[in-house]
Design a protein that fits this description.
Elements: H1 3-14, E1 18-21, H2 31-44, E2 50-52, H3 55-59, H4 62-73, E3 83-88, H5 92-105, E4 110-113, H6 123-126, E5 132-138, E6 151-152, E7 155-156, H7 157-163, E8 171-175, H8 182-187, E9 193-195, E10 217-221, H9 223-226, H10 234-249
Parallel strand pairs: 1-2, 1-10, 3-4, 4-5, 5-8, 8-9, 9-10
Antiparallel strand pairs: 6-7
């Protein structure tokens, strides 16, 4: 089963398009931090179409942080896709080792990549045809207007990246909800989408209404679940986000 099939099967089984971001802010890479992440996984798994750990939060704690990442990945049920948020973008042999790290060492199902260095940077990852790739298209930060949304002829720069999704049905795009205006979505091909920017970043789910997209779509919530202010469980918060996303996609 390839990544897209696994994701579509999970979405169908759960009725969920929620991707739970595992972006833990660790003061120390210790047993309590690991238990916290595992608790989030256990309580939200029933409502999650996918999990997405951002490597930076673990890398910042050195080898101990990366050990925790390796350990918590083993706690994610095998039927739930894992997207490794690393935004890698390099050339030649280096990119090949990034692919080996993600897919062989950590065993994740998909990665985020920065494709702005060109098509050849995708090739080491495409050698794993059962795995998935999400290319940075329009990101959720204000700086998306500096390059990604700049015009080039009658198109915008991110559309040049979107053209690279035709390399494989396993290749999708990252489209930040905070910048997902109607015009952006109309210019985005019907490929798998990973949509950050909901929750703490203030993205508006209304932007997704009536989009009618057929390719599998994931809406990520990280801080809005892991560091919610309400006095209820992670599972309760995840269930609420799942329902909100469902309503927006109708």
């Amino acid at each position: 089963m390839n990544f897209r099939e696994k994701l579509e099967k999970r979405i169908a089984a759960t009725g969920s398009n929620l991707c739970v971001g595992l972006d833990v802010r660790m003061d120390q890479a210790d047993e309590s931090a690991k238990r916290f992440i595992i608790k989030v996984i256990e309580e939200t798994a029933a409502h999650a179409a996918a999990f997405k750990p951002n490597s930076a939060y673990y890398e910042a704690m050195g080898w101990k942080g990366m050990r925790i990442l390796s350990q918590v990945l083993k706690e994610i049920p095998k039927d739930i896709p894992v997207i490794f948020d690393v935004k890698r973008g390099d050339i030649g042999e280096t990119q090949g080792y990034y692919a080996k790290s993600a897919y062989d060492a950590y065993g994740v199902d998909a990665v985020t990549l920065n494709g702005y260095m060109g098509k050849d940077t995708l090739e080491p990852f495409l050698k794993y045809p059962d795995k998935g790739i999400y290319l940075l298209g329009v990101t959720s930060n204000p700086g998306a207007v500096d390059i990604e949304l700049q015009p080039t002829g009658d198109r915008q720069v991110f559309e040049l990246v979107a053209d690279m999704t035709q390399a494989s049905p396993q290749v999708g795009l990252v489209i930040g909800l905070t910048n997902a205006a109607d015009d952006v979505l109309k210019r985005t091909p019907d490929v798998p989408l990973l949509i950050p920017g909901l929750g703490a970043q203030g993205g508006d789910l209304a932007a997704l209404k009536g989009s009618g997209r057929k390719a599998p779509l994931l809406v990520n919530v990280s801080r809005g679940i892991m560091y919610h202010q309400e006095s209820c469980s992670f599972g309760t918060i995840a269930a609420d986000w799942k329902l909100r996303i469902q309503e927006a996609l109708r």
